């Protein structure tokens, strides 16, 4: 991904951003593998099977979509000249709310009591936590920060540890400016994490000012701030 992102026309931006926001809302609710895979499909422009993938998974898991998300799935079909509607699209339950997922978030994988939520590491690891430096900001985090901080549209990179179904795992949270193709940033973050054998990397990229789902609000509140644009 280059620093100079290509602009999409209005319809394409509406579809891509609509799908991206849908996948944000479904994070922590559908399997991590599916979220990572569909984000890859979106960023690579592989949209033909994305609506089917999401709607089938949503029906099987009993996860509702919003009316706007259902409409976006159908519009993708129309934009690609495909007939009919996404598989399972007529069976998806609609909702106007996004519940919490039941996960908990921490600033460190072990979370010793002395590691505070919302820890700021932009000026380095505090002296009192120096013995935890390799855990608080490890090589995976460095790879993600080094890659994403080089883009002018990226405002901040955080990392939280999520606990819940499936065990403890890393979640990166990346804030970008409005108008930046967040799906491309997510793909690059996933690629960097994968270099360290992180399975199904969870890279949550959101636009500044967005009203985020409870999952992301909880993650950001607990997360360690790794890098912030000066």
Q: State the major sheet.
A: 5 strands, mixed
State which percent range the strand residues make up: 15-25%
Q: List segments where confidence is low: pLDDT < 50 over at least 5 consecutive residues.
A: none
Write the element-wise H/E pattern from the N-terminal end onward: HHHEHEEHHEEHEHE
Percent helix, as a range, is: 25-40%
How would you sum up the global shape?
A: globular
Which structural class should the secondary elements be placed in? alpha/beta
| End-to-end separation | 22 Å
Q: For the residues shown, what is the average pLDDT?
A: 93
- Give the number of DSSP strands: 7
Rg is: 18 Å
User: What is the count of helical runs?
Assistant: 8
Please give a quick description of this structure.
With 230 residues, the chain is of the alpha/beta class.
Keywords:
230 residues, 7 strands, two-stranded parallel ribbon, 39% helix, alpha/beta, five-stranded mixed β-sheet, 8 helices
